[in-house]
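Show me any protein, keeping tokens residue-aligned.
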Amino acid sequence: MILKNFLQIESVIWKNINKREDAIVAEIVNAWNSFGVIDLNDIIINGINYSLWVKFHQFKTHGKMININDIININNQLIGYKTEYGDIAIIVDYIIEDSLINRKISILQSKKEKRINQVEIDLHQLYLMHYWPNVTLSGQNFNFRNIKSDDFSFYHFILNQTNDSNWCSTICSAQFVSMNIGINYVQLINYLKEWLKRKNINSNTKPPSRTLKINLSPRSTPNNEWSLIPKPFRRKLKEIAYLFWGTSDQRVIELSKLRIPNILRIDFVAGRSKSDWIEKSIDL
């Protein structure tokens, strides 16, 4: 049944594929909010029989751009810049009765093809998506050291040029994108330093970018290399499940609440009284 909902998301993307990215994201959000509550098979936990259901809903935010501050410096001065943090976050809660057992978050940045199997990648955004530098927001510092971005930081590519209703979008990890545009951490830092030097002279200087050129159609996941291939919103539930793995890092969740405009939630709930729970949710 959950698979059917993700099939519906693909259908929504296909119907709106010629619209702007933000309009497509809005349609995805509308579809998500229409799913409501879905009953699953009962489950036994520690000898107790529970009903099991899934609730789809949304957490409203006022997402804005964020300031990036890390090791990028010019003349011994730390330089900041602004970039999007993501269009959509998916937060998955695993709940027994009223107790939150686990919470995971995944972040998606939507981009459309400019040609078949080609997407333009802004390097200042890739730096955030892949390497997760320090972020300063309203004087508060978020330090993301020792974080594994390929578990939760994704690009959502809309295949508007490929024009295949079977695969109208695909999801790729930031690690996959960096690897396939052939740029490493040191090179990325150097590109950004040069850009920031020019930007100090002309504030309208555009950030550097590279074109990702690779077959973006979703493919089956070999072994444990799921983060190194394009993946679908649909096909088999086990190939959607990477969106449920995410990260439990509270720093990512807190910053997402402040800066991602669309936070979509899935609650997997084991309980004994669904009617008492449907209107409730665990606070973020």
About this structure: Residues 57-91+106-265 form one domain.
